[in-house]
Amino acid sequence: MTAKQPIVFVVDDDAAVRDSIALMLEQTGTSTQLFSSAEDFLAAYQPGDTGCLILDVRMPGMDGMQLQQVLAERQFTLPIIFLTGHGDIPMSVQAIKAGAVDFLTKPITYTRLLASIRSALLESDKRNQANEHHDDAVVRLAKLTKREREVALLVVRGLPNKEIATRLGISHRTVEIHRCNVMRKVSARNVLELARVVGEGGSQYTEKSR
């Protein structure tokens, strides 16, 4: 399957800002999509789209900080670069704490903005890979029965089969059988690989095992 090309989404109510960023990125061969409002962006954005978001703070209707919150609530992992003429230190701290990768103030130099965009696109790649690994781990772990999940968690915690058997109230031989089934179903060659899959499965997996 061909990976999607990254897109730099620009959300700013100033047409001159949108157009200047688009022109700059056109020279680097980077795709852009331009929006005059947060609402227009939300209506068009698809969760599978990769890239980054250049976002103004003050706009009519939903402002940039509110859009950042909505994206977080929807669990969209698009890296955000704030670009504003009305920023201050408390606002920048709030934005970064909420997950923004950069907070820039207008006017901004071509070099500085381009460097920030490149960093954001690299971050986008990392997040997309993490999401892919998580999805793969969830699929593998879903093959396990409840008892196998319990055994898997105790195995990755480093417990020997004898102690696992005692904790779960089952025989040592039954633990061995469950352990073999776990390794086979999740395609793990050793405990280290099993631990990686369990870790990438996240809390969704561990919560089911409680």
Structure characterization notes:
By secondary structure, this protein is of the alpha/beta class. The protein is 57% helix and 11% strand. It has ten helices and five strands. A five-stranded parallel sheet has the order 2-1-3-4-5, sandwiched between helices. The longest helix is centred in the middle third of the chain and has 32 residues. The radius of gyration is 23 Å and the shape is elongated. The two termini are 37 Å apart. The mean pLDDT is 90.
In a nutshell, what does this entry contain?
The chain is of the alpha/beta class and 210 residues long. It has helices at residues 15-26, 38-44, 64-73, 89-97, 110-141, 146-156, 161-168, 172-185, 191-201, 203-208; strands spanning 7-11, 31-35, 51-55, 80-84, 102-105.
Our measurement of the CA-to-CA distance between the termini, rounded to an integer number of angstroms, reads: 37 Å
Helix/strand-derived category reads alpha/beta
Globular, elongated, flat, extended or rod-shaped: what is the shape? elongated
Radius of gyration: 23 Å
Percent in helix: 55-70%
Strand tally is 5
Mean pLDDT: 90
**Strands in their spatial order, largest beta sheet:** 2-1-3-4-5
The run of helices and strands is EHEHEHEHEHHHHHH
How would a crystallographer describe the biggest sheet? 5 strands, parallel
| Residue windows where pLDDT falls under 50 for at least 5 positions | none
Summed up, the helix count is 10
Question: DSSP strand (E) fraction?
Answer: 5-15%
